[in-house]
Structure formats: structure tokens, C-alpha cells
Amino acid sequence: MEKKLALPITEEDAENLRIGDYVYLTGTMYVARDAAHKRMQECIESGKPLPFDIRGQAVYYMGPSPAREGRPIGSAGPTTASRMDKYAPGLLDRGLRAMVGKGKRKKEVLDAVERNNAVYFAAIGGEGALLSKCIDSSEVIAYEDLGAEAVRKIHVTDFPVIVVADCHGGDLYREAPEKYAVK
After folding, report:
1. What Å distances lie between residue 161 and 24, 53, 127, 165, CA to CA?
2. What is the pTM of this model?
3. On the CB side of 137, how many CA atoms lie within 13 Å of its CA?
4. Catalytic positions, please?
5. Does 183 score more than 70 pLDDT?
């Protein structure tokens, strides 16, 4: 099913999503990768506030390239989500509602998605130049010293993703091979 969804994502939005749904996201998303996640984990452990209020938000695992003239960002393809697996359950438990990346997630992450009425979306790898056209603005909001791994706030319009893990326990990476395997 094809859906349009405004960000930030509500609990009801997440409950209405199922694996395999094609979704076009519009609104504010945050960009964070490995190094930023490590710093956010350090904030949690030391009792300091996170660099943005994660409740209901979507985090895109992406390492942007420098912006071309007249554009807010360069190529903007997803990075492998499993690199954030050790941090994701804690962020989901604190209210993060959605993650966007590519690739499979560990059971602990999938359990946290289900427990917190969240969702994991996949963006198509290798499509960074096309995905960047859906990004209207980009600004570094934290950890500027990390360069491409700094936390960014981006605004997206009709950003295409696929639901690959839903809050009902669905996991497209597990179920699709079972469903379509040649027997």
C-alpha cells in the first residue's frame, strides 16, 4: 500500500503501518550516524539532555556529501542501520518513533520497535542523488566537530521509504524470503 505521512510520526501513524507499505515522508527528520549515536549514548549515561527532543521523531542514518551550488545537501543515501543497533533500543525507549536506513536489524531493535509502537523504514541504497532532491533544507544542530557525522535537522518532501519493521512484529527481511522462496 502507498501512503503519505507527515513528520513527526504519531503512535497512531505507526500503528497504521505494515511491512511492505510504501510511504512518502514530509516534514522534519534528523540525521545521525555512528559517532553522533555514540555521543547521544554518552548523554544518556551521564544524565545530560540529548541534542534534540527525540519524542515522536524520525532519525535518518545518512552521511551527506557536500552540497552542490544551489542545493541544501549533496548525495543523501542511507547507511547500514545495523551499526546503530547497540544505541537504537535506548533511543526508542526514550520516544524515538522512526528510523530510516538500510539493512537488517538485530532482534533487540525489532523488539524495541514493537514495544514502543515505532517503525523502521528502509531507503533505497545507491539512490543518494535522487533522495537528495527530496530534501528541502539541512542544518547542523549538534556535534559540528564530527563533520559529515554531525547531527543535522532536515526538512523532506515526499521522501520515499518502505516499512521493513513495524510495531506489530513484522520484519520484511525475515518474512519476504519465507514468502517468496522457491520450494
Report:
1. 6, 23, 12, 12
2. 0.94
3. 8
4. 37
5. no
Read off the pLDDT of residues 64-102 as tens digits, 9 standing for 90 and up.
Answer: 778 888 899 888 999 999 999 999 999 999 999 999 999
58 close to 99: Cβ distance less than 8 angstroms: yes
Assigned C-alpha cell, 169: 512484529
What is the average pLDDT across 111-118?
98
Give the span between the Cα atoms of 178 and 172, in whole angstroms.
10
Nearest CA-CA partner of 62 in 27, 41, 37, 87: 37
Whether the Cβ atoms of residue 144 and residue 35 lie closer than 8 Å to each other: no
Judge whether 162 and 116 are in contact, CB under 8 Å: no
d(CA 6, CA 27): 6
Lookup result for grid cell 518532501: 157
Strand-pair partners of 159: 25
How do residues 12-43 score in pLDDT, each as one tens digit? 999 999 999 999 999 999 999 999 999 999 99
Rg of the chain, C-alpha, whole Å: 16
The answer to whether the CB of 7 falls within 8 A of the CB of 158 is no
78: left (phi over 0), alpha (psi -120 to 50) or beta: beta
Q: Is residue 178 pLDDT above 80, yes or no?
A: no
